[in-house]
Specification:
Largest sheet of chain B: 4 strands, antiparallel
Distance between the termini of chain B: 97 Å
Radius of gyration of chain B: 43 Å
Largest sheet of chain A: none
Number of strands of chain A: 0
Number of helices of chain A: 9
Radius of gyration of chain A: 19 Å
Strand content of chain A: under 5%
Oligomer: heterodimer
Number of helices of chain B: 8
Structural class of chain A: mainly alpha
Structural class of chain B: alpha+beta
Largest interface: A-B, 61 and 50 residues
Shape of chain B: rod-shaped
Order of helices and strands of chain A: HHHHHHHHH
Number of strands of chain B: 6
Shape of chain A: globular
Chain lengths: 218, 224
């Protein structure tokens, strides 16, 4: 068999990429501490989509995820003077995001709020059209079905397991980094990741075999 | 090796969490075991699907709107930054001191104004100030115990004070309706209520004070 490509993240998971990111992040953080608003905007631009993806994966509601990301960046801005730089900026940011997201889910649960199906709203209030509309309606439908299945499988996981999966698969963070973010031992992260993956792979088994060619963007 | 243990090792292999030696050994097993390689492919595909779903979730993210909201709230929170917080605390202390000083000046000014405006002479004033728990009233009204008002109320439990004023109130009203010659009047603001202080002469010629307090009621104005 050919060598299995083990680099699973786009950039941040790669060692050299992380080093470059860390250096840039450190410079930006220093500039924000000096009151440079543009540096804060750069940090926002670098991380807000990833932060949103993680938050959304945990809270499963778009508006809640927006609230989480907004609150997280406000915390970053307010407390950046306290950030010593012992850990990387993104580790610090993801810790804030995941803690806020998990708190959000717990508050929602305590409030006995009914889990409802996510309704996406565009800024002007219009209901969002199906994603990835293209000339192939079958592929569009299959793709929509796949995404729904993934979100559904994620939603069945406990929020801590969701966070671990997302930090590993989406952000490409190491076990040590995830353990730092979630403030639990590395062994706990390995255990959660293992069980969460197994469970999700069982649910998504039909999508993991063969080649449906639906995951590629049209 | 069980599937469970093998899957655990496979995950650590894909996550690059094996040592170099472990990684090489596992790679060799992958090359020799098509079933294991198939599971590795499925695991990779799984990661790809998760990333696909994550990317999809951010497609309609309005970055500008989100940053505007953050900037708006962040700028409001600038007082909470350490350096600003010190300045803000100092400002609050100065403001509190100014408020305390102003309050003292106002209280002294109010006391002086009251002393200046009050019309009684020293004798009358001392008589007013000496109004005891037991109040004596002139013009045939007679002595009124201080607790008579409560006793009066007890005579007609549940009676609305608007429906029928107490006897004391009637007596006081009589005094006010027909104040003694030479009565002097002072309008007084009691805070929640306004009222009037009458100075009347008692049966033995002593100075007495009658206080009329007005109270607003929901259905009108009752005076007693």
């Amino acid at each position: 068999m050919n060598q299995i490509p083990v680099t699973t993240s786009k950039c941040i998971g790669g060692t050299s990429c992380v080093r470059i990111d860390r250096e840039l992040d450190q410079k930006l953080v220093a500039r924000v501490k000096d009151g440079d608003q543009r540096a804060f905007r750069q940090l926002f631009d670098r991380y807000h989509r990833r932060a949103f993806a993680v938050a959304y994966g945990v809270v499963k509601r778009e508006q809640d995820a927006l609230d989480v990301v907004q609150e997280a960046f406000i915390k970053v801005y307010r407390h950046i003077d306290n950030f010593q730089g012992n850990s990387s900026f993104y580790t610090w940011l993801y810790r804030i995001v995941t803690n806020l997201a998990i708190d959000h889910v717990r508050k929602r649960r305590r409030g006995s709020e009914q889990e409802c199906e996510e309704t996406r709203l565009l800024p002007d209030g219009e209901v969002q059209l199906p994603q990835f509309l293209d000339s192939n309606p079958v592929r569009t439908v299959l793709r929509k079905e796949l995404l729904e299945a993934i979100h559904s499988a994620l939603a069945e996981l406990p929020e801590y397991h969701r966070a671990v999966i997302l930090l590993r698969e989406v952000e490409g963070l190491s076990y040590d980094e995830i353990a730092t973010i979630l403030e639990v031992p590395k062994g706990t992260i390995m255990s959660r990741l293992f069980h969460a993956r197994r469970r999700m792979q069982q649910v998504l088994a039909e999508y993991l075999q063969g080649d449906l060619s639906i995951e590629e963007a049209p | 090796m069980t599937d469970f243990a093998e899957d655990d090792e496979l995950q650590r292999y894909l996550d690059q969490e094996l040592s170099a030696a472990e990684h090489a050994a596992f790679q060799k097993r992958l090359d020799e075991d098509p079933a294991l390689a198939s599971r590795a492919e499925a695991a990779l595909r799984f990661g790809k699907l998760i990333r696909l779903a994550a990317e999809e979730s951010t497609i309609h993210l309005d970055s500008e709107r989100l940053f505007f909201a953050i900037e708006e709230q962040g700028s409001l929170a600038r007082h909470e930054e350490p350096q600003s917080r010190v300045a803000f605390a100092a400002y609050m202390q100065r403001r509190d001191r100014r408020i305390a000083l102003l309050s003292t000046v106002c209280a002294v000014a109010a006391a002086l104004a009251l002393a200046y405006l009050q019309p009684w002479n020293a004798e009358e004033r001392s008589a007013i100030l000496e109004i005891p728990a037991k109040v004596e009233m002139g013009d045939g009204i007679g002595a009124i115990p201080a607790d008579l008002s409560a006793a009066e109320r007890a005579e007609a439990p549940g009676r609305s004070s608007k429906e029928k004023p107490s006897r004391v109130m009637e007596r006081m009203a009589a005094v006010i309706d027909e104040p003694s010659a030479g009565s002097e009047v002072l309008e007084v603001d009691f805070g929640d209520h306004s009222g009037t202080v009458f100075s009347v002469e008692g049966t033995r010629g002593e100075s007495l004070a009658v206080v009329w307090i007005a109270e607003d009621f929901a259905n009108g104005r009752l005076e007693y």
